[in-house]
Specification:
mainly alpha; about 70% helix; globular; single chain
């Protein structure tokens, strides 16, 4: 049940978007951020983060495979979703997502991963046994030429795909902020900064996720963590976090200065229904705390163990804060009436199509896909990779 205070129109009492719509931009943000981290190696030649390059690409693919599932479960007739490809609606931002998603999945991520792994796939198709051998043979797509000239062409084409993939990643996640920012009837969402904030917050969440996955995977494999790599990732995370936080504060200051007729209602929301999720989780725990921790690691020369702990805590708090930001945008924007005279609450079910259990399963599913992908295409950085990169 949902409680209502004040006056709300009948069509405003029931929230149209649930926790699954919160999860959707969160997952796509991880995709975009992980791809941007990978592009630091191929496009910007930041060799320090090379140990996470393949892991970042597989992470982006694993989360991208799950990205449309929250939308599918939210739809009343998900079996009709394929019609967006048959009858494209060029003026609908949501309808165009299908084409953006398909382009980014097939033409960018899958193509780049295949080119990067093609040499390994060919070798494994010849050395693997049992059923894996047949899988690798199919993955070669009939191309078994791994001569130096062929690998050089693969690298050049992969570089071009990555170059195209950077704006594609921005487009994939930026359009979510565009949808919210273009809804003029809702003052909580209607801001030209919304797409930009979504893009930078996506970069923050994706980089933090890959950093945590790299540290966790190294510990599970009982391999030493490349601290030069993690320190570099943390430094980029810190810089982008500062930009993201500055943009959010700029939007907040602009709202306070403008103080239109909706300001009192929004201010009431922040101090009541969204106090914990926005003030405590998003701002203090999810933004200020990781920024301070990351900044401390940049300024003070700390021991290796202390830096590991700081990065682990900061990365975890970052993901919590970004998820809280998505929650506050999606759910918070539906809790007040268009007349600014009434408020409602959102109570999430447990075992329903759009309940807590389903949201948890969708959150864990990308990690399962990542585990499967890592078994087929090991992303772990070896000494041979360093020799190949140097040569």
């Amino acid at each position: 049940m949902q409680g209502v205070n004040g006056f709300m129109y009948p069509n405003e009492v029931q929230l149209q978007w649930s926790v699954l719509i919160v999860l959707y931009p969160f997952i796509t943000g991880l995709v975009a951020g992980a791809f941007i981290l990978a592009s630091l190696v191929r496009i910007f030649h930041v060799e320090a983060v090379r140990p996470t390059y393949r892991l970042a690409m597989l992470t982006a693919l694993a989360f991208l495979l799950v990205a449309p599932l929250p939308l599918q479960l939210h739809l009343g007739h998900p079996e009709r979703s394929y019609e967006m490809y048959l009858t494209p609606h060029r003026t609908s931002a949501m309808a165009m997502f299908g084409f953006v998603y398909l382009w980014y999945l097939m033409a960018v991520l899958v193509a780049e991963i295949w080119l990067d792994y093609r040499r390994d796939i060919v070798i494994m198709s010849q050395s693997a046994t049992d059923w894996k051998r047949w899988i690798y043979r199919v993955m070669t797509l009939g191309s078994s030429n791994i001569s130096p000239r062929a690998l050089e062409i693969d690298d050049r084409v992969g570089w071009l795909i990555t170059l195209v993939g950077i704006p594609s990643a921005f487009l994939l996640h930026g359009y979510v902020g565009f949808i919210f920012g273009s809804i003029k009837a809702n003052p909580w969402w209607s801001s030209p900064l919304m797409p930009v904030v979504f893009i930078f917050s996506a970069m923050v969440s994706g980089i933090a996720a890959v950093m945590l996955l790299y540290m966790l995977s190294a510990r599970l494999r009982k391999e030493p963590i490349d601290m030069r790599c993690v320190d570099t990732i943390a430094r980029y995370l810190f810089y982008i976090f500062i930009i993201d936080f500055s943009l959010e504060m700029l939007d907040l200051v602009h709202r306070i200065y403008e103080a239109d007729e909706s300001f009192r209602s929004l201010d009431f929301m922040v101090h009541t229904r969204l106090y914990f999720s926005q003030i405590i989780l998003q701002i203090f725990a999810g933004t200020l705390a990781p920024v301070v921790l990351l900044g401390l690691a940049q300024v003070v020369k700390l021991p290796e163990l202390a830096r590991k702990r700081i990065y682990g805590i900061a990365g975890s708090l970052t993901l919590i804060g970004i998820f809280a930001m998505r929650w506050n945008v999606v759910i918070g924007g539906q809790l007040f009436s268009k007349s600014f005279l009434g408020y409602t609450t959102y109570k999430m079910g447990l075992i329903t199509r759009e309940g807590l259990l389903m949201a948890m399963l969708l959150s864990l599913l990308p990690l399962f896909f990542l585990w499967v992908l890592a078994k087929l295409l090991p992303p772990w950085y070896q000494e041979q990779d360093a020799i190949t990169a140097a040569g």
